[in-house]
Amino acid sequence: DVQLRKLFTDTDQYAGKEVVVRGWVRTNRSSNKFGFVEINDGSYFKSVQVVYEEENIENYEQIAKAPIAAALCVIGELTLTPEAKQPFEIKATKIVVEADSDADYPLQKKRHSLEFLREIAHLRPRSNTFSAVFRVRSLVAYAIHRFFQDQNFVYVHTPIITGSDAEGAGEMFQVTTLDLDKLPRNDDGKIDYSQDFFGKETNLTVSGQLEAETFALAFRNVYTFGPTFRAENSNTARHASEFWMIEPEVAFADINDNMELAESMIKYIINYILEHAPEEMKFFNEFIDKGLLDRLNNIVSNEFARITYTEAVEILKKSDKEFQFPVEWGIDLQTEHERYITEEVFKKPVFVTDYPKEIKAFYMRLNEDGKTVAAMDLLVPGVGEIIGGSQREERYDNLVARINEMGLHEKDYWWYLDLRKYGGVKHAGYGLGFERIIMYITGMSNIRDVLPFPRTPKTAEF
Ligand code: 4AD
Ligand code: MG
């Protein structure tokens, strides 16, 4: 049999020939003489129309009754239909029912709400929207690997179970064994969680950055691409407990090199998807977010804006807009502030740099002013922050001071500090939220709808 993707892309090669296709019924209607069944095999966004006639299909009655989601194997001639909406159809000579489907199949031919589809995560990949989302998700992953591999970056697998808090924010899920007998106990018989795994308290990683730095100082250019976990109890449309992150780390690079890398990566990904998923993108533009294609085309052909945190605060203070959260130098920018800056002032992606050190992680490089750090966040219209990164503090004494100031324990970071002792050049990197870039490219507005099996504080199934 041949996949629909092949038929749709090399149609001429099959014109007038006999083909065999397998797929699931999307629609089926018939009279007592002939019928039309649309089948989709998941290899392509579109379905193929199959025409079947009572005259030459021996099990005509059975096919006419085949319900949505039944699986068929069709043998027939591929006929070009230049006048019709679809470029071709198949005139069936034989159809075999490979699997029947119950009549209570929840995905009938109508538009279902995203909330409803979320409740049937095991079936929603079969809907048009999620077929498009998850193919794009797969292609974005591939584009990211290509972008870095073409530039000789080494892909490093950082640990999922870890003893260090990379962000120093204490938002970690603890890892423990379920075998209660094997758990270390205190003298009073209570479980001693500080002696959990290999004699150390362990957690699910919040970021692979610190380990990526060790590889950057050996390979120069590296990146991670893996799952990360955050135990923040924020029930928003942009936060998940389990999400994927891409973290490049580059030796001999400063914050400006970092921004250039991030900007060219985002543009590369968007161009790749526009070229390799045109049908899916047309669908998003029509049904999910009108104006999406114009916006994405604009992004790839224009430079991103760059402002400092201090400039951002000035812009916000000068605006007539009433913010719920008052603006003062030193505050962490809230979603409403980020949206105002990207959506109303610049109307394009904006790098915000040099944040106050108090609101950023311990590893960021302290600037000359002693108050700000060489941080860079990339904010985009519609989604907000999609990248967080920085130039790293490569000076040993400064780093120790920051660790202590933040109330962290120097001994937990001994190997990280070692990197500063042995050839610790300047270096920089960032983390791209994988789901956030998928949201940005597809126009989907809830992170639960770009994760195959979303893990949020309220998920139940799976
Ligand atoms: O800004 P964050 O916390 O930065 C880091 O973790 C650094 N260690 C990255 C680095 O410099 N190597 O997270 C990076 C990005 C955010 O900009 C956001 O896009 C995404 O990860 N992110 C989340 N995505 C979904 N759900 C969450 N709970 C997220 N938290 C962060
Ligand atoms: Mg951040």
TrEMBL record:
UniProt keyword annotations, A-Z: Ligase
EC number(s) per entry: 6.1.1.22
Superkingdom of origin organism: Bacteria
Record protein name field: Asparagine--tRNA ligase
Organism: Anoxybacterium hadale
Underlying gene: asnS
